[in-house]
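[Automated response] Your request has been received and processed.

Submitted sequence:
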Amino acid sequence: MKAETIKILILEDNQSDADLLERELKKNGLNFTSLIVETRALFEEALKDFEPDIILSDYSLPSFDGFAAFIITQSVLPDVPFIVVSGMLGEERAVELIKSGITDYVLKDKLFSLTPKIERALKEALERRKKKIADQELIIQHEKLLEIAFLQSHQVRVPVAHIIGLFGLFDFEDPSAAINGEIFNMLKSSVEALDRTVIEILQKTSEINYPRKQA
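Generated structure:
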C-alpha cells in the first residue's frame, strides 16, 4: 500500500539549501510534495492555499525569521508541526524555541536526522488530533447527559406530581361525578406530557456513543 503523500512547506531563501533538503528527504524514502517560499507574503499565502502537513523553516531570512513564521503559523494552522532547519543555531536558542512551542530543530550539517524527526512530528500531531476529537466527543456526551439529567429531574417530575395530585382529587365514591371527567382529561394531558418527555429522553440517550466493550 502506497504511503500517503506528505505536503511539506519549506521556508528557505537559499535555493541550494532547499534543493539539498529535498534530496535528503527523497534519499530517505519520504513520500512528499513540497512548496518552497522565501518571503513572508508567500509564506502566509501558502499556509492558506497549500495547507501543509508540516513546515520546515530556515531560522534567519532577509525579510523575517523562523520564529516570526512560527507565530504566523500558530494563528492559521496551530496543529501543524513546525521544524526549524538552520545552519547556525546555538543550543541555548534552540532550547528557547522548543520551549516556545516549535516542534523541533535540525542543523543543516546534520540533515540525516531530519526524516526521522518529520515522521515523529507527524505521528505526534496525528495523536494530538485524535485526542482533541475524543475530548470534543466527551464534551458533547457530557452535555447530552446533563440534558437527560435535567429532563429526568424536572420535566418528568412535573407531570408525575400532577398525576399524583389529581388522583388525590378523584371522587372514588362516585365515579360518575362531574369532577372526575375533568380530572380524567387533566390526567390524560399529564400522561401525554410524561410520554413526550420519556420519548425525548430515549432519543437523547440513543445519541450517546457508549464505549464498546473489548472482547
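Summary generated for your ticket: The chain has two domains: 6-130, 156-206. Helices lie at 15-27, 40-49, 66-76, 91-100, 114-155, 157-169, 178-206.
If you did not submit this request, please reply to this message.
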